[in-house]
């Protein structure tokens, strides 16, 4: 099949050339539907990020839902043990999602498909952040979300004339977001390996703009949200699908609480449904007791909070303005009073870190009985301001190791060896048996206990060599 490729990006094309009416006309003219193969690659990181139970890939499910309106879709998730066929002759388009830690694998798949004459589309975080690099391994790169460029992209697939990069001039309102069709994932072989948590999305974007974060590039600094009734209707749909009210949702939003009125109204309505949920959340107004009370009443089991550091200079350097050290203990206390567990994220390797940083973090975790502490090494992700700042000092550009668990650069105030030895020691101390009992004593016997047990087994075997 001959594929033409223009040297220009979609943003230079007249909107009249890519109207919805033209797309529908071309779609009706198909003698048979073009076949798309959507691929979620497995990463090759040594830390086994994609092993065991994995979350349902909501972004790829959303892509499948959009693509399925006009084309035939085959859905492959390598993390489930599914394999990509060597012979791709049964497909017209190979579309691959990628983040940095599986970019190498995504590129290999793209190269193979190109050799077989296929239209190859790369999307996701890494191809967006490094679209020039990604374009060497595909026909086209989708910059950001596919929904905002779908009319242009689908039209060009039908014409057989693809652009190098599809980048929207403006992002579409989330009110146009179609409810994801989970059958693409649930009908997959080995779908039982997916977590029972149902991913759901209410908002996109984060105006905070931490300099190490990829979100502003992917979804913009603007804050978009779905109408509340659409979110609630999706929850009710899953309740009916599963035949029970008490089901568990996991919000995929980057900062669901940014618009307080929207967030609190959503929680008030969720309280009537009887569901359970967890989410990533900014702590900027969790110091208000009434917010924590409402979250608990609405069925919140766990909130993931980026504490990041106990050093105010570090928080300032990464522009984490929503974090105020003076509020940390108040936030924790408010949540615990309402039986909400905390998954706390802590990062190490900043230039302001010293050996004392590890002790301060340990003391904070133990004193405040953080249920599920998660530790990572500072990782400047490509395309972010932090990456540009740190690039001269980064030890390597092996994307397989960009998983937040590998040593990227030496901080100013300690050697790399000291950084890693303290990093390992902290994890062993927090997850040793007596520390788990101290943090979890009197708390409900649920999956968080199991996670602590698994982390105890994992951290007991750690050595600094894991992180090189």
UniProtKB/TrEMBL annotation:
One of its GO terms (cellular component) is cytosol. It holds the Pfam family Radical_SAM. The keyword rRNA-binding does not apply. The keyword Iron-sulfur applies. Residues 190-412 form the Radical SAM core domain. Its cofactor is [4Fe-4S] cluster. Keywords: Iron, Iron-sulfur, Metal-binding, Methyltransferase, S-adenosyl-L-methionine, Transferase. It comes from the Bacteria. One of its GO terms (molecular function) is metal ion binding. This is Radical SAM domain protein.
């Amino acid at each position: 099949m001959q594929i033409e490729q223009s040297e220009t990006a979609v943003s230079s094309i007249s909107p009249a050339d890519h109207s919805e009416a033209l797309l529908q006309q071309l779609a009706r003219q198909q003698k048979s539907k073009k076949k798309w193969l959507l691929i979620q690659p497995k990463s090759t990181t040594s830390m086994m990020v994609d092993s065991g139970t994995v979350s349902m890939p909501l972004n790829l499910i959303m892509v499948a839902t959009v693509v399925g309106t006009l084309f035939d879709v085959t859905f492959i998730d390598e993390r489930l043990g599914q394999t990509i066929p060597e012979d791709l002759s049964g497909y017209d388009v190979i579309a691959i999602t990628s983040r940095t830690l599986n970019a190498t694998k995504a590129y290999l798949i793209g190269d193979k498909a190109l050799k077989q004459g296929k239209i190859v589309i790369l999307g996701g975080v890494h191809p967006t952040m490094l679209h020039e690099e990604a374009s060497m391994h595909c026909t086209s790169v989708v910059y950001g979300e596919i929904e905002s460029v779908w009319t242009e992209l689908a039209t060009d697939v039908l014409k057989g004339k693809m652009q190098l990069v599809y980048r929207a001039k403006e992002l579409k309102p989330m009110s146009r977001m179609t409810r994801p069709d989970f059958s693409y994932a649930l009908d997959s072989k080995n779908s039982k390996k997916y977590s029972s948590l149902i991913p759901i999305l209410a908002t996109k974007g984060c105006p905070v703009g931490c300099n190490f974060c990829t979100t502003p590039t992917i979804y913009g600094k603007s804050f978009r949200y779905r109408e509340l009734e659409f979110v609630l209707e999706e929850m009710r749909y899953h309740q009916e699908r599963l035949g029970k009210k008490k089901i568990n949702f996991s919000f995929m939003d980057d900062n669901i609480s940014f618009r307080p009125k929207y967030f609190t109204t959503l929680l008030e309505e969720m309280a009537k449904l009887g569901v359970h949920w967890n989410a990533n959340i900014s702590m900027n107004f969790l110091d208000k007791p009434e917010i924590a009370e409402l979250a608990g009443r609405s069925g919140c089991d766990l909130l993931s909070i980026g504490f990041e550091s106990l050093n105010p200079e570090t928080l300032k350097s990464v522009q984490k303005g929503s974090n105020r050290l003076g509020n940390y203990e108040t936030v924790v206390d408010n949540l615990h009073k309402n039986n909400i567990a905390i998954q706390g994220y802590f990062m190490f390797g900043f230039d302001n870190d010293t050996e004392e940083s590890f002790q301060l973090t340990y003391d904070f975790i133990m004193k405040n009985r953080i249920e599920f502490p998660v530790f990572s090494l500072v990782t400047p992700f490509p395309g972010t301001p932090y990456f540009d700042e740190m690039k001269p000092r980064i030890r390597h550009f092996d994307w397989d190791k960009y998983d937040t668990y590998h040593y990227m650069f030496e901080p100013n105030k300690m050697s790399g060896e000291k950084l890693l030895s303290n990093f390992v020691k902290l994890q062993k101390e927090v997850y040793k048996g007596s520390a788990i009992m101290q943090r979890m004593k009197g708390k409900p016997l649920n999956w968080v206990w199991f996670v602590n047990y698994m982390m105890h087994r994992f951290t007991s075997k750690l050595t600094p060599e894991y992180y090189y």
